[in-house]
Specification:
The protein is of the alpha/beta class and 338 residues long. It has twelve helices and twelve strands. The strands form three sheets. A seven-stranded parallel sheet has the order 3-2-1-4-5-6-10, sandwiched between helices. Strands 7-9-11 form a three-stranded mixed sheet. The chain has a two-stranded parallel sheet with strand order 8-12. Helix 1 crosses helix 7. The longest helix has 20 residues. Bound molecules: nicotinamide-adenine-dinucleotide and 2'deoxy-thymidine-5'-diphospho-alpha-D-glucose (DAU). The site of nicotinamide-adenine-dinucleotide has 31 residues, from helix 1, strand 2, helix 4, strand 5 and strand 7.
Length: 338
């Protein structure tokens, strides 16, 4: 059996990966380590919590008492655990440093003590390149993160690399573009706008709405990680991008069309401070080893809208009942978009 440790496996991408891994690899035993922050939810793992090849451990990656024994028993580590929302980092960055940077350090130290570890996949982000006005970022480009979230991820990205360069911990670094799909926490633009539209609430579009993101279906991201565990080279960085470049205003209109609601729900609001204008990735390095995105954006977005329609209970528990979310929403959007 291959022992796979997945940190942050109760979050959006992590839970999709755990489900995918158990389904695809009958010789993998998966351990999920997750602190269950506001973004980590056991409901995301429904259907696999009782799976005979899956174990869930509640704990903090930054706690060596929890992380070290799990890392010592792993053949493969996929490190998703992080604070992930840019707007929250702008409000208060402390947890981003503690989890994204220090937590990664703790896990790398633990990995260093495990001579049989085959892969340590550090899940980084395209945000580490910073905003680019044209062209596409290559893995060799300079890192120019511009907000506390992306700076913390850049720190973790380079720290992981240093454990390869210095100690030969078999680190692989992925830099993915914006993911979307089922179980994404409704603070991110796609699930927030779908669920607000369903409820006829305003869709708070930042600034002029012309910022551009490259959308990647979470299933395509999971397939990239699976391939890299098998065929990626230690010490290397791989961009993972869907190739779906969409401006926020266009995305918002598409969501409204799919939900069947009028464009009058769009509410222009003050811009995000330091808002990165555009990300775009060159993915030829990953494509050269056999990965291609399989989910067309129109189809993926349609499926995602359907998922949020079918799973109202999941997001209403967060949006309507969780006091933490209501407090965050009020602080972020004030009276303007409630
Ligand atoms: P998410 O916010 O949905 O989930 C994060 C998970 O990490 C949650 O389950 C949370 O409980 C857990 N966690 C947080 N702090 C922890 C700690 N100290 N110890 C253990 N668990 C902890 O995030 P996501 O969107 O699924 O992102 C997963 C990873 O992918 C992150 O590293 C993120 O930076 C990266 N990434 C995300 C995207 C995207 O578009 N969502 C794109 C590129 C890279
Ligand atoms: O690019 C990868 C990154 O994508 C990941 O590393 C991050 O973890 C993930 O959160 C995501 O970051 P973004 O800041 O790009 O995602 P978000 O959904 O917050 O915003 C997407 C775009 O939509 C961005 O240009 C800001 C805009 N936006 C967002 C929200 C929440 C709005 O206009 N209004 C909103 O209310």
């Amino acid at each position: 059996m291959v022992n796979v440790l997945v940190t942050g496996g109760a979050g959006f991408i992590g839970s999709n990966f755990v489900r995918y891994a158990l389904d695809r690899h009958h010789d993998w035993r998966v351990t999920t380590l997750d602190k269950l922050t506001y973004a980590g939810r056991l409901e995301n793992l429904q259907g696999v919590m009782e799976h005979p090849r899956h174990e869930f451990v509640k704990g903090d990656v930054a706690d060596p008492g929890v992380a070290a024994p799990l890392a010592a028993a792993a053949d493969v580590i996929v490190h998703f655990a992080a604070e992930t929302h840019v707007d929250r980092a702008i409000m208060s960055a402390g947890e981003f440093i503690t989890t994204d940077v220090y937590g990664t350090f703790v896990l790398l130290e633990a990995a260093l003590q495990n001579p049989r570890l085959r892969r340590f996949v550090q899940i980084s982000t395209d945000e580490v390149y910073g905003s680019i006005s044209e062209g596409a970022s290559l893995e060799t480009d300079e890192l120019k993160p511009r907000n506390p979230y992306s700076a913390s991820k850049a720190g973790a990205d380079r720290l992981a690399y240093s454990y390869w360069a210095t100690y030969q911990v078999p680190v692989i670094i992925t830099r993915a573009s914006n993911n979307y799909g089922p179980y994404q926490f409704p603070e991110k633009i796609i699930p927030l706008f779908i669920t607000n539209a369903i409820d006829d609430k305003p869709l708070p579009l930042y600034g002029d709405g012309l910022n551009e993101r490259d959308w990647l279906h979470v299933g395509d991201h999971c397939r990239a990680i699976e391939l890299l565990i098998d065929r990626g080279y230690p010490g290397e960085v791989y961009n993972v991008g869907g190739g779906n470049h969409v401006r926020n205003a266009d995305l918002t209109r598409r969501i409204l069309q799919l939900v069947g609601k009028p464009e009058t729900l769009i509410q222009p609001v003050a811009d995000r401070p330091g808002h990165d204008r555009r990300y775009s990735l060159d993915t030829s390095k990953l494509q050269a080893i056999g990965w291609h995105p399989q989910v067309p954006f129109e189809q993926g977005l349609d499926d995602t809208v359907s998922w949020y329609r079918r799973n109202e209970q999941w997001w209403r528990t967060i949006k309507d009942q969780d006091p933490e979310f209501r407090k965050y929403y009020e602080r972020q959007y004030g009276g303007s978009a409630s």
